[in-house]
Design brief:
2 domains, disordered C terminus, three-stranded antiparallel beta sheet, 19% strand, disordered N terminus, Arc Repressor Mutant, subunit A, seven-stranded mixed beta sheet, alpha+beta
Length: 377
């Protein structure tokens, strides 16, 4: 008999394949909404408002996932985007929109209640408070609530967590989360949120296309996990059933964590390389990756052997060197395109790195006929 997690991977794959992936491709078969104040919903999606009690102060617990918890209303806010889809039945989603991300002022206010029908997708941006899963997703009378099934995707910097939950005869059950590694999914969901915030039918279509791509990549990832687990079951069946030693368990945990850390550093490098002509800080990069600046700086130093700012400076100077060698752009323009607004600063840093000024480097390069520099190496 398969282990619970293995069975969940197979089950989630079937959900995405049979109930999600084919549906958004058909015109008008699904709805995609963004959880935001004054949510504009289709006519068949009811949006109501309910008075909420003031937030009682609770001890602050630092978490890499949660921003805040509102226990008295069974709600919480997380640091990452969350996508919900109603597969069967109906569900009521309670939402609160704080002035500051994840924090609600201790005063009376209202929250929205959205009634969702099958094949409705709700995109919840970071910081928005929503139900924490301890209660059924139902805010209407009469009760008992209608049976329903929901599918959830939590987008992390290195992939997504997926799970489904069901309500049957007032009992609410959540499955365990399954992690699907994929560096592109966080990028795609950021693009989708941006399109949903943009007015116009073209933006809606673009968001729908991005949703299709997200679901296809999640399905592919679940399929790969299913094949891996099948191979592991066959391998374990041929081996002794004795448990792993503590040393082997520690090594396995290390091998599990390292790819996630490496993926964060890789995304930080990609951010730096794609923003060389713009000013940015470590905080800007960390917010894009949904991690703390100190955590990201520590990982970057450990894996790259240098700080993010030194890495950024070197990539900018490499970019400038390539433009000096291969273009006729003025030094002032090259400085600007390399992220330096002040030419004297650019000249000083370039001389520190190359032992000569940008003008001298260009002249010597032309005299000696050196080959061009590839800044992507």
């Amino acid at each position: 008999m398969p282990a619970p997690e293995e069975h969940s991977v197979s089950e989630l794959y079937q959900i995405v394949s049979d109930k999600l992936s084919p549906q958004p491709c058909a015109s008008g078969s699904s709805r995609l909404l963004l959880a935001q104040p004054g949510l504009k919903a289709p006519a068949d999606v009811a949006v109501r408002y309910r008075h909420a009690p003031p937030l009682k102060s609770e001890p602050h617990h630092q978490s890499r996932i949660f921003l805040s918890r509102w226990k008295q209303e069974s709600m919480h806010a997380v640091r990452y985007p969350y996508l919900c889809c109603v597969l069967e039945g109906e569900a009521d989603m309670r939402l609160a929109f704080p002035a500051k991300r994840g924090q609600i002022a201790q005063e009376d206010h209202n929250y929205q209640i959205i009634s969702l029908h099958p094949q409705t997708f709700l995109m919840i941006p970071p910081g928005v408070l929503y139900p924490d899963g301890t209660q059924v997703h139902w805010e209407r009378q009469p009760k008992p609530v209608a049976d329903s099934q929901l599918f959830w995707i939590l987008f992390l910097p290195t992939g997504v967590f997926c799970h489904s939950c069901t309500t049957h005869e007032t009992k609410h059950t959540c499955q365990d989360d399954i992690f699907v590694p994929d560096l592109q999914l966080p990028v795609l969901v950021e693009m989708m949120i941006d399109e949903l915030r943009t007015p116009g039918s073209e933006a809606i279509q673009a968001a729908q296309n991005l949703l299709n791509l997200i679901l296809l990549r999640v399905r592919r990832g679940l399929s790969q996990l299913n094949r891996i687990q099948t191979r592991q079951r066959k391998t374990q069946a041929r081996r002794s059933s004795a448990p792993l030693s503590s040393a082997m368990e520690a090594t396995d945990r290390c091998n599990t964590l390292m790819p996630a850390n490496s993926a964060l550093v890789e995304r930080a490098c990609n951010y730096i390389r794609s923003h060389l002509n713009q000013p940015f800080t470590i905080k800007d990069i960390a917010e894009c990756l949904y991690v703390s600046p100190s955590h990201l700086a520590r990982l970057f130093q450990q894996e790259m052997g240098t700080s993010m700012m030194r890495y950024t400076r070197q990539r900018r100077l490499d970019s400038a060197q390539s433009m000096l060698a291969n273009t006729e752009l003025a030094v002032q323009e090259i400085a600007r395109l390399s992220g330096y607004d002040h030419v004297p600063q650019f000249n000083r840093l370039f001389k520190q790195s190359h032992g000569m000024t940008p003008t001298d480097f260009r002249s010597r390069h032309r005299q000696e006929g050196k080959i061009s520099v590839n800044v992507n190496e």
